[in-house]
């Protein structure tokens, strides 16, 4: 691990735990993604809707983490960037 990478991890002790959690979530295939999107048109109280929503939200966490780590020029702490990204994804796929 290079010095810049090591400094990144030392300044963010939560990162290793969150990264491991996010990496454990499977990536949706195009077919699974399309099925989930189609399920969002169902009534919100159905199990299919809730499952699709959960899969869509969790499948985007990896992308949010990657973007947060690669955006130091925004001068926003990585944890804040991750939080904002997570809220945006949850907002996008309904409540």
- Estimate the mean pLDDT confidence: 84
Query: Could you tell me the number of beta strands?
Result: 0
Oligomer: single chain
Helical stretch count? 5
The percent of residues in helical segments reads over 70%
Low-pLDDT stretches:
none
Give the strand content: under 5%
Order of helices and strands: HHHHH
Description:
The protein is an all-alpha fold. It has one domain (3-92). The protein contains five helices and no strands. It starts with a helix and ends with a helix.
Summarize the structure.
The chain has 95 residues and is mainly alpha-helical. It has one domain (3-92). It has five helices and no strands.
Which key terms come to mind for this protein?
72% helix; 0% strand
Q: What's the topology here?
A:
Blueprint lengths: L2 H9 L1 H11 L6 H10 L7 H23 L8 H15 L3
Helix pairs in contact: 3-4, 4-5
């Amino acid at each position: 691990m290079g010095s810049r990478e090591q400094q990144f991890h030392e300044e963010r002790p939560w990162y290793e735990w969150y990264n491991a959690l996010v990496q454990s979530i499977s990536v949706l295939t195009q077919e699974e993604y399309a099925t989930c999107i189609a399920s969002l048109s169902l009534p919100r109280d159905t199990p299919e809707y809730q499952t699709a929503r959960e899969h869509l939200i969790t499948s985007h966490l990896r992308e949010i983490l990657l973007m947060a780590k690669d955006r130091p020029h925004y001068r926003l702490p990585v944890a804040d960037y991750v939080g904002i990204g997570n809220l945006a994804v949850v907002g996008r796929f309904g409540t």
